[in-house]
Structures are given as C-alpha cells and as structure tokens.
C-alpha cells in the first residue's frame, strides 16, 4: 500500500512539473498583440521583487529583496532593501544611484547605470516587442507566456546574452525576469504583490 501511495505521489509530481514546461509557440501574433495592448494601457506599476544572483565568481547565490516602481513612460525606481540598501532612480535621461546610504558619483558606475536604464525602460514600456534591438522567441505553458530575447546589438551583447520574461497568461503581468550575461552569470527577478495603474508621485523618481 505504501509503495502504491509513493508511486501515486511521484506520478502527481511528475505530471505537475511536466505541465509547467514551456513549448515554442507556432503562432505568436495573438500573444504579441495582447502584450502590446497591456503595455499601452499600463500607466504605472508597483511591485515587490526578490533577486537571485549567480556567478562563477561567487561561492554561493546572492539573494536580495526590494521594491520597484514604474511610471509611464520613462520613470523607474528600483530599490533593494535587504540585505543592504541600493537605489537606482531613472527619470527620463537622468539616472541617479545610491549605495549603502551614499550617492554614487563614479563615472564608470553611472555609465553602467545608463545601460541598465535603457534596458529597463524597454522592458517596462514593451518597446522590446518591436524587435528592433532583440530577436524574440515565444513559448507558453498552461498558465504563462515566456519570451526569450536575444540582443541584436553587439554593444548590448557585452552586458547581456539573453533575457527571459515570464508573463501570467490571464492578467498579462510580468512574474519573472532573468538576465544572463553568460552561462555562469545570471540575475533572476521574481515579482509579487503587483499593482497596476495606481497613483505614484513624480518625486518617487527624483528623490532618494
């Protein structure tokens, strides 16, 4: 009886895991149109996030948590709150950074922040869907869409080799964003408690 119960549990787990696998979409037009419509109707986003960073240079994965705010069309506040404070403010072409309570003025750090700014704005506005800067392959499972983006620009390839975005099929809200620099370096973000089209003051993107 115990053997039968164990086999049943294993079968149930296998079925659940198999159902979560993504398959390539033969026709992505409907998915793309739905995501474009959602991005056009989204004026703001507020969400919690968890971050996991892995690299060959790290002895173990580094984890962090925080909050993000986005306001159409080029305002983003990305704020890590644990284990240490780190804030990136994006307000149009202006990018500001604060690390462990001190504003970052280093020129090279700001240059990297500019690259992040360009990338994050594309992800939030849905601009990436025009495939000007990325080749996109569409996948799906029962509950989600997965878009795998490969940069076309050689300069961008220096910073990121591939980006994966997972959207909830029903609400078309981003659930996960993964950026891979190479096979051993990866940043993974999971979003929760997402709120759309709430009022956010402009000072959220200009003041630490």
UniProtKB/TrEMBL annotation:
Coiled coil: none annotated. Keywords: Lipoprotein, Signal. This is Outer membrane lipoprotein carrier protein LolA. The lineage of its organism: Bacteria, Pseudomonadati, Bacteroidota, Flavobacteriia, Flavobacteriales.
